[in-house]
Task: structure prediction
Amino acid sequence: MANDKKPWSGRFQKATAESVEKFTSSIDFDKRLYPYDIEGSIAHAKMLGKQKIISSKESAKIVSALKNILKDIEKGKFEFMTADEDIHMAVEKELIRRIGDVGGKLHTARSRNDQIVLDVRLFLRTEIKIITAYLTSLQRALIRLAKKEIKTIMPGYTHLQKAQPVLLSHYLLAFTEMFGRDVQRLEDCGNRLNVLPLGAAALAGTSLPIDCNATAKMLKFSSISKNSLDTVADRDFIAEFIFATSLVMMHLSRFCEDLVLWSSDEFSFVEISDAYTTGSSIMPQKKNPDVAELIRGKTARVYGDLITMMTLLKGLPMAYNRDLQEDKEPLFDTVDTVKNCLSIFTEMIQNTSFNAQRMNEAARGGFSTATDVAEYLVRKGVPFRRAHEITGKVVAYCLKNKKGLDNLTIKEYQSFEKCFTEDIRNNIKVQNAVNARKHIGGTATKNVLKRIKEFEKSIGKI
Result:
């Protein structure tokens, strides 16, 4: 049986069973919230003193002791105990040990219910900034590659079949766009979670004359929660964060899927540095893209965290329930996994070389400029549906006769449509086909260079 007196023990006649101590304790994982818990407590103590709910001397004594506890934790001099239950009780227990009954005044006008929401909001506010910085670093790395590979043409794919030629730079910027949307989503999430929950207390608020505006100002919250019930029950911001980062992982995973395929001998489009690959325990010749594969695999883990969070919330009655203790492990796992994956992927992509010659050769295969033949006919006045059919027949003829679009004679072209003339040859050159797509969003070199400049302007010079 545990001997430690609980802060809520007045109502109870028996001590908490040791098995229950272990089962209900969250200190092993929520102790990482200590800087936010102490930051929030310092602001709360200052507000209590300002409002004369406690004396200014008591407020100052609490704040000083909290700062010393923070220093001790950071130096590894603080021992977290299972019996402390959670980070809040661990800090409060130590505070009371150091300064006596004055420490017991810190929890005035506050509950662990609004305190934990505060801690997690402060934690996520910081982590979102870190993750968006990782994303921006990755964008910069991709833009550097896009500038370097501006002359490299590759086959674009649909259904994993060669479709049309595009610039490799255009491909790289496609992911730069995706990661840009990820930054926007996370920033939006950060704006929505930047709401002060303190004051909600257990669920109904407090009768004491607190000043939420003062606390919000100290903690740099842009607004204050307008409904105490919603405040302590709300974990939307965690679910939203995990969803936003699930999209980050999905984008990384899709990129990794291409790198895995492209590093195979069948494609030979990329060479990932030896430093970011591994070998086989039995096959000496193997060079495996394990980093890319692991990122792809860890995406499932973050998806699982999202499902955990959504399932946790779906059946909870209002307002606070202990089930919500289970929100932190999937949250922490998501934060750690996403940061690790972004960091290692950025390193890997900067140590990956692209086989421009092989890509260019592949771009010329698979009748990749067939659409240009159809659009050539459209410019000659042929309705697109008919132009599509004519071009399909041309391709079928080429397949039957083992020819390419670039080595058909004009006579052969004209056997399908009289309006074909010698200028068709320029239209089906891969470089010309790429640069013909000069509208906004197209793969033309001029467009891609312009978009690179726009990125450089928005996220800083590369």
